[in-house]
Structure formats: C-alpha cells, structure tokens
Amino acid sequence: MEKLNIPRLVLLFLLLFLLLCVTSVWAVDPNRQITQYAHTAWRVQDGIEVGTTVTQTLDGYLWFGTSNGLLRFDGVTFVPYDLPPITPPLRGFNYLLGARDGSLWIGTRDGLARLKDGKLQWFSDPAQHSGITVILEDPEGTIWLTRYHVPRGEGPLCRVQGNGLHCYGEADGIPVKYGLGLARDSEGNLWFGSSALCRWRPGSVSTYLNEISKRPDAGIGVVDVAAGPRGTIWATTEVAAPGMGVLFSSGGKWASYVIPGFDGSKVVSHTLFMDREQSLWIGTEMGGLYRVHNGIAEHYGTADGLSGRKIHLVYEDDEGNIWVVTDGGIDVFRDTAVVSYSEREGLSDAEILSVLGLQDGSLWIANGRVIDILTDGHHSVLPAKGKFDENVTALFQDRKGTVWVGRSKRLFAFEHGRLQEFKRADGSNLDQRIAAVTEDAIGNIWVLTERHHVYRIENGNLRFVLTASGDNRLSGTLAADHQGGLWIASRNDTLTYYKDGSAPTISMNRPDSSFGVSEIVVDSDDALLVATTDGLFRWDNQRWQVLDSRNGLPSNLVYSVLRDNDGAVWVRCQKGLVRISASEFDKWLHQSDSKPAMDVFDNFDGALSGHGPFLMQPSATKTADGRLWFVAGAVVQMIDPRQTFQNRIQPPVHIEEVVADRRRYSPRPGLRLPRLLRDLEIDYSALSFIAPQKVRFRYKLEGRDEGWQEPGTRRQAFYSDLHPGNYRFRVIACNNDGVWNEEGATLDFTIAPAWFQTTWFRLLCVIIGVVVAWAIYRLRVRQIARAIGARFDERLAERTRMARELHDTFLQTIQGSKLVADDALDPSTDLVRMRHAMEQLSAWLEQATREGRAALNSLRTSTTQKNDLAEAFHRATENGLMPGSMQASFSVVGDAKEMHPIVRDEIYRIGYEAIGNAYKHSQASRLDVELKYTQDLALRVRDNGVGIDPSMAALGKDGHFGLRGMRERAARIGGKLTLVSSANSGTEITVVVPGGIVFRKKRTTPLEKMKALLRRMG
Question: Which residues pair with 560 in a beta bridge?
C-alpha cells in the first residue's frame, strides 16, 4: 500500500477548512437590494466574447468558457488561454468547474477533460460525442456530471473514476435517457433534470414532475435544479405555463413558484443558483435576472445596467462576488461598505436636503415635498397621502422627542402623529426658507433662515433675535454648546457665538471668497468642529486647528462631520468618506501637524464623491442602531461602523509573463533569457475581485534592487541593461483593504553572458592586461637602460678620447717638461746650460698650456651655429697648433641643411680629430677640408703629407685612440668612415652620413608650397 504524505494531507485539510471559513463569511449581503450592490459589466461591445460558463480555480483565477476557447481573468484583463495540444482538440465549452485539488474540469460537447499542472487529459471517449451539461464536486472530492448526449448502453449521471467515467443508467434504476441541470442537497442526494426530475443516491432513485413529459409543450423537460435549506427544491422547465416555468417543492408538493415580485409560471428560466446566504438567483431566457431572499423577489435587467437579457450562468467566487454570464457580456455584483438609497431603492424623489435619525430608530429624509421614513428596512412616507405644499428643508428632534420640520418658510412640530405650525407673533410666516433648527442647553428651540436671521420660540411664537454675521450666500448652520451658548455659521469665514444677549464674532482667517462653511458640530468637550471648503477646522475657545490634505485627508472640500458610538470621527469629503479613530484624532489634537491613521472609503467602496447644492441641516446623522447616514446629492448613503469592512482574504499573487526584448516567455522555473538583454518586462497580477483597481504591489529583483520597489497598482516591472547572471524576482500584493500576501510569487531566471561577458574571457583580459603592462614596463625599462647606457657610452667615449688626446699631446709635453726639469736639476755649475734648460722648460710648458687649452676647447666648443660646420672647422685652426708652413682651405658643396645637433657634433668631433692628426703628424704643407650637402652629408679631410703606415691605419697606433675614436663615432651615428693613405700622396679621411639620420625634415608652409609650385611652373 502506498504511504500517505501526511504534510500534504494536513495542508489539504487546512485549505479546505479555510475555504469553508471563507465561504461562510464572505458573501453579498442578502438584506440589500441588487441595485445597492456595486455592479460592473464587460459587454460584447467592449470586445468581450460571449461566454457560456464561469468558474474559479484554486490559484484564484477566474475562467470563462466561450465558443472560441477559454478566457482567464485576473480582475483587470481577460486573456485567451492557449490549451496544451490534445487529440482531438476541445470544442464547445459547456461547463467549467474548478476543483479543490487545483484542477480545471472542462465539459464540452465531445466529453469531459481535465487541465492540471499544465497537462490536458480526456476523461471520456471524444469519439462518442457525449455532451456534458453540468459538473459538480461533492464534499468528498468526487466529481459528478450529467450528459445531454448519452452513448448507447450508458447512463446520464456519471462520476469520475480513475482516468475515466463510471456512469449510472437504466441498469441502476434511472429511467431517463439524458441529464441536464445538477444539484446536491444537504442530505447528499443528487438531483438532476431530464424529461422528469430525478433524485438519486446509491441504491435509491425517485422521479418527480413526470407529468411534464406528457405535455406537448414540455420540450426537453426539466432544465435546471437548485437545492435550498430544509429540503426545499426549485426546478425550471423549458416553457412558461401554469404548472410549468419555475417550480418549487417543500415537503414533496410541487407548484409554480409565486412570491411577491415573481410569478414562476410566467418565466422561462434555464439557470438556477443558490448562494451562500441561501438567496436564490434565477436567470431567465429573455427577462434578465431575479434574486429571491426571505420570500421577496427583486428584478435586475438591461434597464438597470445588466449586460444582456439572456442569462447563461450565475456563479459565486471565493470572495462572495456574484458573477453573471449573459448573452451580452459578463456582470459582477459585490458588496460595498457604503450603501446608497435613492429612487431606485424606493425613495420618493431625488431632492434630498437633510436627513435625521430619530430616537425610535427610524430615519427621516427631507426629500422634496415629502419625508421618506425608513424603519427596520420598511419604507413609509409623510404625509401618507399626497405631498406637502412646500419642500421640506430642515429637520430636528428635541430632547422631548418632538420632531421639528422646516417646510420652506414655515415651521412645524410633529408630535403624536400630528403637525403643529409655529408662526411669528403677528401670525405671519418667516420671510426666508428655514435652513436649520436646534435646541440649546436649557431647552429653547432656535431657528436659522437662509439670510442668517435667528429666531427663538417664546410663548408659542417665533421671535426674531439677531442677524448673524455673514455674506449673502444662502443657507447656514446652527449648533448649541453645553453652556447655553449658540454657534451660528454662514457660508463665509465668520462665526457668531450668541449667549446671554451677546453675539461676538470669530474669524477663521480665510478671507478668500471661495472659502465656505458647510456644517458646524459641537463636540462632547464643547469644542467646535467646522466642515469647510478648506478642510476640517476645530476651535477650542483658544486656537484654530486645521485637518486637511497636509495631514492625509484625501480632499480639503469637507461636507459634513460627526462621531459614531465609539467616538471615531467620520468626515465626508469630496473624495469619499473618512474614518479617524478616537485615539488617532486625539493624537492630532496634541500635534496638529501629525498625520493620523485614516480609513478612506472611496467610490470603489460605494462612497459617492458628488455633492448637490448647499444642504440644509442636518446633512449627516446617526440612527439609534449606530448606523451613520449622509446626504450625497440625490441619494442618502449609509455605513454601519459595527461591521467589519476589511477583506481579510490574501490575494493570490502570480507572475504572468516575461517579455525580454519584445520576445515573450512563460515564467517557468530555471528560465534562461538571451544574452545582451537590453529591455526586460515582468508582468504580474494579484487575484482579488472585490476592487482589483485598489490592489497594490511591491516587487524586488534580488541581484539588482537593494530594497522593495513601490509601483502602486501598476502590474509590470521594467528593467534595462541587466548584467549577465542569476536573478530572483519577488512580488507581493495587498487587497483592497491593505491585507498583504507576504509570500507572494517568485521567479528565478538567468541572463546568459555573451562570449565577451564570460568569466573566462574576463580572466583572459586580465591576463592579457597584466602581460601587456609587464611588456610595456619591460620595454620602458629597456628604453631607460638604453638611454642611460648611451649616456654612459658617450661619457666613456669622451673619457677615452680625452685619454687619447691627453696621452698623445698634453701628457707627452708634460713628460718632456719633466725631463728638461730633471736635466736642469742635475748638479752643475754651468749657468749657461741651466739657463738653456730653463728656456726649453718654459717652451715645453707653453706647449702644454696650448695643448690643454685645445683639449678643453674640444670639450666646450660645439657647432652651436645652426649648420655652418665649415666655419666651425675654420675656428678649429685658430687654436695655435697649426704650423705656419701649412696652408688650409675650406669648401662647401650644396646648400647647407639643418642637422640634428647630436649627429652634427659627432661629425664635428670626427673632423676636428682628423684636422688635429694632420697638424700633428702629416708634415704636410696643405690641408683641404670639404663639406658636401647632397642627399647625404659627406666630410672629406685631405693632406699632402707623409701618410700613415697601413698597419697603423688599420689598427691604430698602440696606446693611441684617435683613429679608433673616429671610427666609433662614425658607427654610432650610422655613418661610414674611410681612410686612404700613401707615402707619396698623403692621407684622405672621408665620412659619409645618411641624410635620413643627419638632416631634419623641414616643415613646409602652404605659402612655401605655393611658391615652389610656381617656380616649377616657370
């Protein structure tokens, strides 16, 4: 035997318990008229497909069957639902049932199918075309159904067994051939319609209304059936006639169902529905909708706003809303916290000026020329016959129970069923309409007229007392405090306080002409509450306090104010009705800039935002049962503070769809979205059908959002340029009364990375970056090393050259001087020889000085002139070393060009060394120096001396570095040095340096280019 999953069973039982609790609490109030429910219609003209059936599944969605398929509804949008593929496909949706296990049962003209967990399965052979009429689930979870087309050998009543059907027919005692409407009574009997009405339970079959099948006009017989409390049964037939139409049975006796407002023998109905409050809903073929409660029927048709005349089905959802599928659309009826009473509900007129709750519990409504009286749900009119000759304006009941009635300019007292008129002492009526009547602390009756004239009843007459401060706007209001004083308000910002003959005024500091006072009320502590066009004012005889939109009031335009039995303050303003608890109101009294918690009832809660002309007093009242009543234009609105208005059902939250770069995805687990995603839209919903427009959401994308986002009522979340990675989207919602579903819905999804967004690519980029940085670093190190090495080489070369020069010239001269000095220091008495030695030493020292100066000049002197190397070489001959017998000539071939300074200096030093060698060693009589500027630069130094030994020319003289230094310098600047020497023709040294190395490129200006072009053109 398979092991039971205990946690799942516990969860199932909890769900069943909650469902039973919900169904026992949430339902439309049967004591209201249909017109007092909130009604919404979606019509065919609005694009809605004609439906035939409706149901709600465990996930909260509503499903509508149409001729073209299924529509799924979330309270805002009807979405065609794509069913999973199945063979053959479903056709003709006759009936839908949302079962307690979350599945959706679909009855079609071809049989029964089930949709569960995204899978669609046939539970009957579609080839037999066994059309399904009704599907029902009993308390044990068994699925029952009736069929209007029954395959041969089978029965009309079936239950689901395994993956198929087990049907009951003639072999089980059922005498009928087909099944229509189906219902289950409180004792577990199944009732279904056919050519007769059948009652079945295992082992027991009974038939009723068998005579109907014998009538020629019977048609298909009994169409639908409904089971009520205490064994009551209703049935409908296809035709209306005596003994036909809508039938009723109590105690086994059948008869046409006839009650006030409904005659079943004259109605053709194919739809019966019993709601949770045991109200019977009757859908007719062409006459709209009826509702029966406590034996009284109400009608609601197209003239009242119903979408169609023919009713296909009536259904009640989990929140108690009533759904009606018609031939013209879909309608829903729901309860509201605020209930309206108007002409549609039986009031005499639509000219309501004031409303008064009496001590006996009744409600008086000044409505045109009559007074409508509501007592325990019953309606009466004063006068009972006819109408008054003037409009009723103000109403008031004093402490003795006398009701004072202002009828235009006349004042009446209603007592013991009689009206007694009060006039002025001269027997005349008032010259203005009566706006308000009140009683002061000592029992005086006061009357205020439209032009703010105040009268008091004395000795049975109306005596004028004063004219209150005010402008010419009509109407006003009165309020008596507990100290014997009287507050009088006109429609401007000035109040008058009358007491003991004194009438000082108090300004509200609102001089704007648009400001006005609607009503004043004296609170229990004698503070004055003033409803104005600029908020609710309070005066405590010391200071004014203002409660307005800055404190959270939805509108500054306040019409009326009063307290309920719990001390809560109720404010009727332009945008609805507001409740502030006594504790929250007290908090505001102690801190005027605070925002007290408020319960706001707006148009979704039935509170009308409109307002008629200025009202008479009172415009708001409380009846003895604690209900509050407000005049709202042409209607009176009521709210019962004792009721709990809060919808405590948490709305199921669903993620509907994901749209990524305009491509749609189903929100499945592990969803992977494409790479390089730019725009992401996530659609979600919360399933509350009482006021879906007031459902609010919060969402958060983990991995992107740090906190909850507040989109209000918007049902989409938008993101752009999300990075690749894993994300979790969470959304929660609250219903119309702020009850949050904190669990909400979640969706995990992944955005795939592009190849350049992957981890390995980023790692590779890091590695390449490190390698490139290292290579740049090493290259820079090498460049610095080469630069330093070049400087070191240059210094070494200079040191080497200096060593050569010092060795070859200066040091030899010094050595010679030392020899002469040594010779002079030898002991001798030959003064002539000593003098000659000293003269020779002086010459040698002079020679050393010249050679040292020449060495220093070679270090400091550079061709600082721009290009004139010839001039530089000419200056080199002026160092005093050139023998007088040697002649020097200098020549320049070509135009001089700008040269790189370093290369130029190297050429100079090579030439200087060559000239110096010729002076010192060639014994020549002539020296020629030639500079040649062509594509390259050539320097030629030639003498006619004794020449150089070939071995010395190739390797240099041992211990001397002149020739070696010249070759090194030429190689360093990329030049070529050649030496040609012979004993007969002297020595010739030539250095050739490429022009790309030695010459600088000259920038040519546009003007120079133009001149050159003109020169070429001749």
Answer: 572
Q: Which of 460-464, 743-747, 863-867 has the lowest mean pLDDT?
A: 863-867
For residue 814, count CB atoms less than 10 angstroms from its CB and return exposed for 0-12, middle for 13-18, buried for 19 or more.
middle
Which strand ranges, in their side-by-side order, compose the sheet holding 477-480? 477-480, 486-489, 494-498, 505-507
Beta strands in 304-377 (DSSP E): 311-316, 322-326, 329-334, 339-341, 352-357, 363-367, 370-375
Q: Are 555 and 596 in contact (CB under 8 A)?
A: no
Amino acid identity at 124? S
Position 7 pLDDT exceeds 70: no
pTM more than 0.70: yes
Q: What Å distances lie between residue 198 and 204, 210, 241, 268, 600, CA to CA?
A: 10, 9, 21, 20, 51
Q: Taking 80 as the threshold, does the pLDDT of residue 115 lie above it? A: yes
In 20-91, DSSP assigns E strands to 38-43, 51-56, 62-66, 70-73, 78-81
Question: Any idea which residue has 């120096």 for tokens?
Answer: 929
Q: Are residues 628 and 483 in the same domain?
A: yes
Whether residue 32 contacts residue 335, with contact meaning beta carbons closer than 8 Å, is answered with: yes
Neighbouring residues of 633: CB distance < 8 A, sequence distance ≥ 6: 352, 608, 610, 611, 612
Judging by beta carbons within 10 Å of its beta carbon (0-12, 13-18, 19+), is residue 440 exposed, middle or buried? buried
Euclidean distance between CA atoms 97 and 107, whole angstroms: 8
C-beta of residue 710 within 8 angstroms of C-beta of residue 731: no
670 inside domain:
yes
Pairing assessment for the beta strands 322-326 and 222-227 based on DSSP bridges = unpaired
Q: Which domain holds residue 954?
A: 869-1018
Count the neighbouring beta carbons within 10 Å of the beta carbon of residue 613. 10
pLDDT for the residue numbered 862: 47
Residue 116 structure tokens: 């569960």
Q: What's the chain's average pLDDT?
A: 87
Q: Which amino acid is at 995?
A: G
The CATH number for 702's domain is 2.60.40.10
Question: SS3 string of 548-576?
Answer: CHHHCCCCCCEEEEEECCCCCEEEEECCE
Helix, strand, coil abundance in the chain, percent, nearest 5: 25, 40, 40
> pLDDT for 263-307, tens place per residue?
999 999 999 999 999 999 999 999 999 999 999 999 999 999 999
Contact 272, 249 (CB under 8 A): no
Q: Are residues 750 and 762 in the same domain?
A: no
Number of domains in the chain: 5
Tokens coding 732: 């929660």
pLDDT at 877: 62
Q: pLDDT by residue (tens digit) across 10-19?
A: 333 333 433 3
Q: Which of 572, 604, 639 is the last residue of a domain?
A: 639
Among residues 860, 878, 908, the one where a domain terminates is 860
Q: For residues 156 and 194, give the distance between their C-alpha atoms in angstroms, rounded to a whole number.
A: 9
The helix/strand/coil state of 67 is: coil
Which comes out higher in pLDDT, residue 804 or 927? 927
Q: Which of 393, 432, 315, 257 is nearest to 63 (CA)?
A: 315
* Residue 633 and residue 661 in one domain: no
Non-local (6+) Cβ contacts of 197 within 8 A are: 191, 207, 208, 209, 222, 225, 235
Pairing of strands 558-563, 544-547: unpaired
What is the amino acid identity at position 914? A
C-beta contacts of 423-432 below 8 A and 24+ residues apart? 423/461, 423/462, 424/455, 424/461, 424/462, 424/463, 424/464, 425/461, 425/462, 425/463, 430/455, 430/462
- The rounded distance, in Å, linking the Cα atoms of 110 and 116 is 19
In which band, very low, low, confident or very high, does the pLDDT at 153 lie, cut at 50, 70 and 90?
confident
Nearest-CA neighbor of 636 among 607, 601, 602, 604? 607
The answer to whether residues 950 and 956 touch, using CB atoms and an 8 Å cutoff, is no
Give the helix/strand (H/E) hosting 672. Answer: strand 671-673
